[in-house]
């Protein structure tokens, strides 16, 4: 039966890689909770004990999620080509569960931790037998598989970091384009203002030139009037003197 949650092969691989990362993170959480328990034995307070219990409950939820995800992957039609990886993940998941159950029992005895029996999805006898064989492998084989898982986890993490860097690069490019657009708008506005200033200056110069021409024209007209007036006065004086000469002779 193909589970409708798995859309295609790429989605299957993504879920599979996610389970590997979660198991790796879960192993680190279990190591951290063991150190927390040792610290709690030395100096136990109510708040720290409550935090310790919350962490245990959180790990329980993570295990339940992983078992559910593994069941989904196992039912997918794409599981055939990834059977070996699935078996390795199941093996690590079983070892993690067994170790965590021991931690739960210790927490119940040492700190009075109350918990319900873990209701993880059941595994068939045949699968349980295969997993136990995997668990009982030599330390060298186990280390090889752990190295392989760690290598794949590192590869996936590197790919995620690269995608994050690529996303940040696109964001930076978008910001630069936005900033350049703002700069271009400012330049356009400055050019528009400059054009308006140039046009105003041209108009003022034209007005000044027209005023100067008008002033010069008025000056010449006034000068001509003065000259004509002077000529008229001279003519009048001349004829007046000429007419007055006979009377003087008598």
Automatic annotation (TrEMBL):
Belongs to the syntaxin family. PANTHER family: PROTEIN SSO1-RELATED, SYNTAXIN. This is t-SNARE coiled-coil homology domain-containing protein. Keywords: Membrane, Transmembrane, Transmembrane helix. Residues 146-208 form the T-SNARE coiled-coil homology domain. The keyword rRNA-binding does not apply. It is a single-pass type IV membrane protein. It comes from Adineta ricciae. One of its GO terms (cellular component) is plasma membrane. It is found in: Membrane. GO terms for biological process: exocytosis; intracellular protein transport; vesicle docking; vesicle fusion.
């Amino acid at each position: 039966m193909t589970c409708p949650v798995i859309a295609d092969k790429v989605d299957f691989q993504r879920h599979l890689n996610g389970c590997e990362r979660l198991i790796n993170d879960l192993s680190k959480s279990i190591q951290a909770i063991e150190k927390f328990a040792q610290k709690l034995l030395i100096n136990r307070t109510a708040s720290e004990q409550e935090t310790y219990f919350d962490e245990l409950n959180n790990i329980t939820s993570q295990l339940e999620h992983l078992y559910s995800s593994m069941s989904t992957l196992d039912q997918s039609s794409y599981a055939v080509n990834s059977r070996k990886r699935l078996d390795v993940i199941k093996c690590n998941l079983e070892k993690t569960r067994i170790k965590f159950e021991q931690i739960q029992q210790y927490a119940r005895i040492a700190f009075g931790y109350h918990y319900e029996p873990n209701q993880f999805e059941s595994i068939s006898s045949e699968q349980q037998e295969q997993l136990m064989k995997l668990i009982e492998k030599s330390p060298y084989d186990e280390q090889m598989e752990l190295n392989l898982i760690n290598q794949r986890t590192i590869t996936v993490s590197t790919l995620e970091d690269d995608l994050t860097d690529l996303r940040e690069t696109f964001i930076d490019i978008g910001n630069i384009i936005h900033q350049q657009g703002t700069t271009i708008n400012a330049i356009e506005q400055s050019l528009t203002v400059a054009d308006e200033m140039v046009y105003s200056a041209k108009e003022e110069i034209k007005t000044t030139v027209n005023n100067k021409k008008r002033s010069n024209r008025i000056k010449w007209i006034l000068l001509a009037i003065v000259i004509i007036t002077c000529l008229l006065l001279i003519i009048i004086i001349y004829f007046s003197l000429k007419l007055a000469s006979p009377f003087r002779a008598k």
